[in-house]
Amino acid sequence: KSGQTALDPSVGASYPLKAEALKGRAGIGSDLSPEVARLARERIGVEVEPSLFETPEQRVIESDACVVVPTLDTASVDLLVTSPPYWNILHKKDHKVRQERDAHGLASRYSEDDPNDLGNIDDYDSFLKELASVFREARRVVKPKKHAAVVVSDFREGPRLHMFHADLA
Questions:
Q1: pLDDT along the chain (169 residues), means of 10
Q2: Cα–Cα distance between 19 and 16 in angstroms, integer?
Q3: Is the alpha carbon torsion for 25, 40, 120, 99 positive or negative?
């Protein structure tokens, strides 16, 4: 609802924050990549038209979600909405998403070697554990009886299908 606040701890291309602004909600997003954070701010500045009424603030914080989310007040957010990293699938040359990104000249890594980048974790179970810790902390900042929308898709790693939606739940 208008006047509420949403959190996206993995802001990426900033689609959720853009939607929040257009619906009259404040937004907080974080991204570990300085380039991605810059692009998110730019997209919001260009694609959210000024209104006769004040547009709620959309904060894009250039930092690790594991650092940003703990700084937020308990029960201060009405909605958690995010599409978290998909482990290290962008590193795999034979993965469909990687091939599509390469074909369009897009980055195929969130970061090259940042140890805080969940996309650089080699072990799937370790990745899930780290991502779950972000969501546990995010749960603290979401107001009671409010909502979370986590957009994920299952994916393949070679012959193995990772049921990412179920594993994360």
A1: 91 81 88 87 77 74 92 96 80 61 64 77 92 93 95 86 92
A2: 5
A3: positive
